[in-house]
Amino acid sequence: MKNKQFLLAARPVGLPTRQNWDYVETEVAELADNQVLIQVEYISLDPAMRGWMNDGKSYIEPVQIGAVMRAGTVGKVLKSTSSEFSEGDYVYGHCGVQKYAVVGIEGLHKIDPSLAPLERYLGVLGMPGMTAYFGLLDTGLPKAGETVVVSGAAGAVGSIVGQIAKIKGCRVVGIAGGADKCAYLVNELGFDAAIDYKSEDVQKALRAACPKGVDVYFDNVGGDILDNVLTQIRMKARIVICGAISQYNNTTAVKGPSNYLSLLVNRARMEGIVVFDNVANYSKAATEMAGWIAEGKLIAKEHVVKGIEHFPETLLMLFNGENMGKLVLKVEAD
Amino acid sequence: MKNKQFLLAARPVGLPTRQNWDYVETEVAELADNQVLIQVEYISLDPAMRGWMNDGKSYIEPVQIGAVMRAGTVGKVLKSTSSEFSEGDYVYGHCGVQKYAVVGIEGLHKIDPSLAPLERYLGVLGMPGMTAYFGLLDTGLPKAGETVVVSGAAGAVGSIVGQIAKIKGCRVVGIAGGADKCAYLVNELGFDAAIDYKSEDVQKALRAACPKGVDVYFDNVGGDILDNVLTQIRMKARIVICGAISQYNNTTAVKGPSNYLSLLVNRARMEGIVVFDNVANYSKAATEMAGWIAEGKLIAKEHVVKGIEHFPETLLMLFNGENMGKLVLKVEAD
């Protein structure tokens, strides 16, 4: 039984390249006590992975050189020496970029493939969905009638943020790259407006799309777009800092928001979130979101690329803005 | 009766110079209905005045070219056509940089010179004190045992912030420029530690002075010091954005905080404040602070410069870090 694995070979400078990865085929290890052997079926590709490749203190340990790249995964239990998991169970876990994983049971939880397609547990019913749900509702605190702006709006988190804000009665404006994504946000997801940052003057477009100003900004991108939104916030606005994908591959310092003094002028707040803080409430959120999906109020979309061998270039799709919806890698090529 | 006035002659680029001001001597106008004539005795000099000299949207209208420069003042009512104020009353108001002011009664309130020296109503019992009190307590939310860091710590606001944090049982670290100021913070105001940003590596000094990290940062300065503190914040830290004096005279863009993603890693918050939002509660705060002063727990210090003619160079003392405590200009030279 041959494993296929991507190991972190070297820490990237700027965008990761093929040289940052070692692809290896290895023997699958024997199980020790209280372990499971998982056949990974889908691998989650997330902007946060770029941060995990860096050395230094963050909200989670960096991936070590020579280690299997960390990733959220869903898969099937093939063998188990744990009383909590049995052969045939489907599980979510951080099993990494590999075909088979021999792991302890910490952080694993069962999922039900009869309730939703497996890959959806990496999207709206997984980390991106939880990030959107708790980040928007608990930190953004949107009220009906307010204006919510989200960047990375066609991505895994942003598309859910915007739809939840619509469910809560807000005016919702998405910022995304390209006419296709913008059309998708307005025509399929029901956003009130979308701004194509690649072809529009974002600040001017924001003024037009948010005539009353911005009450909540959910930021996935940082950089110039954060600065543009800062010029349009209303009094007591809440800015949720979820990520800064525009800055993750910088080879120079992160661009701090030059317009941050707008927080002062507008008595506004900028607050960071990390989804793991809400783990105790994940199932409540997943239940509510599954309900919205069933009612047709929340559309989940996964962008599936097939073949674990394509991991290096598929990861780059995130940074090039090529995915629409949640990007996942299916381990098998067929 | 000759008035002495400083008018805004031109909007400054960078530090204000003598060319930005017109000094004029004019006749004092007659009173219309519901007005008062005030003899201004003390003029408040505040970092915020630099912002008022710029054009563009802010939390308050810019001063117009040719208008008397806006400033907080205390003075004596010489004549009144209002039923609310009588000759001989002492009042606080925004009467501007001039010896006499003929003004409506909006924004004026009586003060009692028998309870505190007049100039103190521009400091701890005025805007800077209110800014410190509400900014620290309502937005910083310090808890006993937490570590509070304040920049501009020897200034009008910072010195009060640090002392209130001590009263609330916090470990307090001040950042100020120069050995004299640092000694004053520790020896006279009871701060636990002080960092001289002019001679010390602020980040290293913060690590030493805040071994558990920073729970509350009250920022008066922005720039590199804000970035340094961002690297040392604890989980769920609160950063109060009160001002950014290091940036007010920039001729290039404001330096945004490059380390703002520390908010994400630490689930921390950065929030702006404007003192005017608390006007309904000023008197409660002033009463509490007057009590602390009477008990010897809160030391108020004013830095008085005499002679309205010295306004242009005295204002610059703020930006050169030359004042210790609240900077005020006494209109009369003697």
TrEMBL record, chains A, B:
Gene3D superfamilies: Medium-chain alcohol dehydrogenases, catalytic domain, NAD(P)-binding Rossmann-like Domain. It comes from the Bacteria. It comes from Paraglaciecola arctica BSs20135. SUPFAM superfamilies: GroES-like (SSF50129), NAD(P)-binding Rossmann-fold domains (SSF51735). Residues 14-329 form the Enoyl reductase (ER) domain. GO terms for molecular function: oxidoreductase activity, acting on the CH-CH group of donors, NAD or NADP as acceptor. PANTHER family: PROSTAGLANDIN REDUCTASE, PROSTAGLANDIN REDUCTASE 1. The keyword Oxidoreductase applies. InterPro entries: ADH-like_C, ADH_N_2, ER, GroES-like_sf, MDR_fam, NAD(P)-bd_dom_sf. This is Prostaglandin reductase 1.
